[in-house]
Amino acid sequence: MILKDISIGRKAIIKKINLDKETTWRLYNLGVTKNTVITCVFNSPFKSLRAYKVAGTTFALRECDAQKIEVAYE
Amino acid sequence: MNKKICLIGPPNVGKSSLFNILTKSNQHTGNWTGKTVDLLTKTFQINDTKWDIVDLPGSYSLMGESEEEKITANYIWREKYDIAIVVLDATNIEISLRLLCEVIDILPNVIVCLNLYDEAMKKNIQIDYQALSKKLNVPVIITSAKEKIGIDKLKEAINNFREPLKKVKFDNTLDNYINFMTPLLSKSNNISKTAMQLLTNKVSLEEYTLEEQQKILKPLVFFQKYYNREKLINIYINRSRILIKEVVNRSNEKNNIHILDKILTNTWSAIPFMIIMLFVVLWITISLSNVPSTLLFTFFSFLEGKLYHILNFLPQIILNPLIYGGYRTLYWVISVMAPPMAIFFPLFSLLEAYGLFPRIAFNLDGPFAKCGSCGKQSLTMCMGLGCNAVGVTGTRIMENKKMKILAILTNVFMPCNGRFPTMISMISMFFILSSGLFGTILSSLILTGIIVIGIFITFIVTKLCNYFLFNNEKSVFVLEIPSYRPPKIIQTILISLKTKALDVLKRAIIISFPAGLLIYFLVNFKIGDITLFQILTNFLNPLGLILGLDGVILLAFLLGLPANEIVIPILLLGYIKGTSLIEYESLESLKQILVNNHWTLLTAINFLIICLCHFPCATTLLTIKEETKSWKYTILAFIIPTIIGLLLCLITTLIFR
User: Fold this and answer.
1) Which of B41, B313, B383, B585 is the most buried (most CB within 10 A)?
2) What is the pLDDT of residues B180-233, one digit of tens each?
3) CATH of A3-73, one of 1.10.3720.10, 1.10.287.130, 2.30.30.90, 3.30.50.10
């Protein structure tokens, strides 16, 4: 399944990141790497992006980018 | 010679706050990523030793590729320093640990500062810092820069610091490489640093003979292939992950979503809440600045008579321009601009320090995405509300060049602190008659409305510029959302007063006095029967009348190019012809001057429109030139808002007539 589809509040584990090199590196910097636990915390009012939490970092990704990250529920 | 310390750590972990406390200085800090871009050095003293401390830009990794990371890495690799203090965010230690692992592999002189420890405790994140210290063989000091906890301990650790005798233990996965290189690099005083630098970075080997260099570089090619950047990154990710398992326990962490986030990001309440916030900030600004403004006004106009009297020995030809030109403009700017600035800037800094702005970016990304930009543009707009030049510099945070240009071209649609006090006085003169509670609420409402209109214009112009200037280039948008941090109120207020408000005010004051002299000269210098001022206004008047304005207003805005603060005083000087002895006693008397010069409601409305939509001030234009390195965009930034302002005025005039 993909990150875009996980429901709010449920924990999932990142399996694969299919984004370009630069973005993958930026996500690395936020602590978003393969095998880390990720939860979706809230939606944005215009539904264009969602906020996710990995360890101590909260960050937002657009739907179109979030579908390039593969996850599985814990 | 002073000893040297550098502060290194990921963005937004409180390096600047620590720097401020240690050096007792007032660098601006804020709760978002990327505050510190330049290298700051200051000196402080512990006992008898003087230390120079350098605040390095936030960096996630020494192998990073952002501008800030390159600056930091360059410093770490090449400069000499006695101690490197690695600052970690205890609430988010996972990110910081990787950087720490990288640094520890190459430097023997590290002190770890576990900042925000009190917040981590509050959130029930358990960190065994003693184990961390033992595992890495470095001193670990727990601090809270905000509460000034642990600062003495940190100073003590700096004072007592001795390089550990035991060599840093290297990561096993790199053992082969280091073992192989060690005999070859015997001339370097820090073998592991040189070895790692050889892998990731260019390094000069001038202390080695050519033959030795050959011996070093030959195997290096192989190692560089094997330990490429990705491999190294993975090594450090794994290493920090093992460390995390050993020292961090998040199982009891409180994971509640902050109540503010629930309201602020909810589909229904988000937009109203943001508008209310804006309104409240403006209302506080307007209602609190009323009284000091009037007081300053009374004081300065009282002084005017005295000053005139004292300087009476001067010939009239010098005295009059000094008092009625320079001095009047100056005291208008001070009494009308200073109080709102002194209230608005600190208020805004408090919100910024608390961490509200990234939420605004989060909320507004949807509409901005449709216009070809991203939510971060709203951050640059927030900065623009303070000062457009600052907003333009702030566009460095944008994701790519296209979005940066879009943000730059539209920043002027946020009325800066030089303009909205002008708007406030116009609003209270023409639309609101009472100055009581009701009056201030109403004028704040109108001003909020104007800013919301500015936001809408921003959307439209962004979309148009994106359509006409760029082909559709997409980029991934990642936005960090920091946790809320209640700021140190008094400190934040003082710092923002000192660094931001004073800066902007100073610029306005420096420009207002000569501007006043110039306008006085224009008003009084005659060619034949007619003053220079009249020649200019007569020339502009036809255009002004078409737009529902007049020549004086247009001239005031043109002459206000150096700083928008001086628009109204120029206007008044123009109307009272500078020679008249009417004093600006109150807003009512000002209104009378305007009405006597054929001002109507339409004039006032169009004045507000032009105030919102016209070319940016000279400082902002220079900043745009510097940021874009392009005349094309600088000229566009001048033309676009001006055309829009003129068009809007034309439309309202057509509607009114």
Assistant:
1) B383
2) 888 888 777 777 778 877 877 667 777 788 888 888 888 887 787 777 777 888
3) 2.30.30.90
Domains present along chain B, CATH in parentheses: 3-159 (3.40.50.300), 172-249 (no CATH), 270-656 (no CATH)
Helix (H, G, I), strand (E, B) or coil at A54: strand
> What are the residues facing B6 on neighbouring strands?
B54, B84
CA-based nearest residue in chain B for residue A27: B478
Tokens linked to B602:
């339409």
And the tokens for A32?
A: 């978003």
Cβ <8 Å between B60 and A62 = no
Contact B379, B356 (CB under 8 A): no
Judged by a CB distance cut-off of 8 A, whether residue B61 touches chain A is yes
Minimum Cα–Cα distance from A48: chain B residue:
B366
Assembly ipTM: 0.95
Please indicate if any CB of chain A lies within 8 Å of the CB of B91: yes
Looking up tokens 């439309």 gives B651
What's the one-letter identity of residue B103?
A: V
Q: What is the pLDDT of residue B215?
A: 80
d(CA A37, CA A28): 13
Under-70 pLDDT residues of chain B:
26-38, 164-173, 201-202, 433-435, 578-586
Give the nearest partner residue to B479 out of A54, A56, A59, using CB atoms. Answer: A59
- Residue at token pair 């917040």: B119
How far, in Å, CA of B575 to CA of B596, rounded? 9
- SS3 of residue B97 by DSSP: helix
Answer yes or no: are the C-beta atoms of B74 and B28 closer than 8 Å.
no
Using alpha carbons, select from B77, B69, B52 the residue that is nearest to residue B10: B69
Contact B330, B516 (CB under 8 A): yes
3-class secondary structure for B416-450? CCCCHHHHHHHHHHHCCCCCCHHHHHHHHHHHHHH
